[in-house]
Amino acid sequence: MTQMDNTALRYFLEVARSGSLSKASERLYVAVSALSRQIAKLEEEVGAALFERRPRGMVLSDAGHLLAEHARRTLLDAERVTEEIRGLSNGGRATIRVASSEGVAPHFLPQVFARFLKTHPATHFQLDVSAPSVATQRVRDGVADIAVCFSISPEKDINVVYSQRAPIFALVRRGHPLAAREFVTLADLLPWPLAIDHQGVTIRQLFDISCSVAGLVFDPVFVSNYHAALQTFVLQTDAVTVTGLLTVRSRLEVDGLAVVPIRNPELQQRTLQIQTMAGRTLPHAVQAFVEQLTGAIDDPALLD
User: What's the fold here for domain 91-164+271-303?
Assistant: First the structure.
């Protein structure tokens, strides 16, 4: 494709993201009239309307959705080739953009980044931490190269390059009466104060589903959208929280925490996934990073 074609596709994607020509104009610093001409040109090329004009803004038509998928891959492939050519002359520099759930962000991913830099010292990382659905959408939109997040259902236009079961555990301080148990059920947690994530994350969704199935009602003493705060609270009290193992694996001994498996089957349904955009060819550096990332998930010793 020509540069003009790529420019038109970039403008088209911004209008799709923004939902209006005026908002896209502000973000791109391009006149509304110029955007409108580019959209009209694309519509003439494909022979179909790319947007439905509605009172609340512009929404992609069926043809628009198909072109958007093509446009994202086309622009990312052009960016990949350009960056890899530049990397030949500047010591292999590459930027890897990662979107992730909070659970893997404070400790695990920085450890993997540091490990990767030992063999790929010219790499630069960008990390965006958000809810799993947002992380996945960032990959779908081409804003992130990969997402590392927890999932409980399949995602459209997403390639899952790695998936591992991520059951949910009870987390307590090491001296807690539950710490020595081989396993617990949710009913065993009822006598203890509960600290738990807010409702926008998969761990809370599955916890609520499991409680509903078991007919249990908890009254949490502490709810937060910041899991590290829940862990600190647990250390200072007799409270219990729930967590994935990878979230706390490297901190159990250091922080004096203990994890206990929870038997309720609904809490076994979550998976940790590494996601990329469907149909996209990843840059060499990103492919190498994904390989090291999967190895670190499977074998904690690789991060020692």
Answer: D-Maltodextrin-Binding Protein; domain 2 (3.40.190)
**What is the CATH T-level fold of the domain 168-268, as seen in this structure?**
D-Maltodextrin-Binding Protein; domain 2 (3.40.190)
Q: Give the Cα separation of 203 and 206 in Å (integer).
A: 5
Entry pTM? 0.72
Alpha-carbon distance 40 to 8, whole Å? 10
Token code pair at residue 274: 């590494």
Q: pLDDT tens across 139-152, in order?
A: 988 889 999 999 88
Burial 8-44 (b: 16+ CB within 10 A, else e): bbebbbbbbebbbbebbbeeeebeeeebeebbeebbe
Question: HEC profile for 74-128?
Answer: HHHHHHHHHHHHHHHHCCCCEEEEEEECHHHCCCHHHHHHHHHHHHCCCEEEEEE
Q: Say what angle helices 32-46 and 3-18 make with each other, to 10 degrees.
A: 110
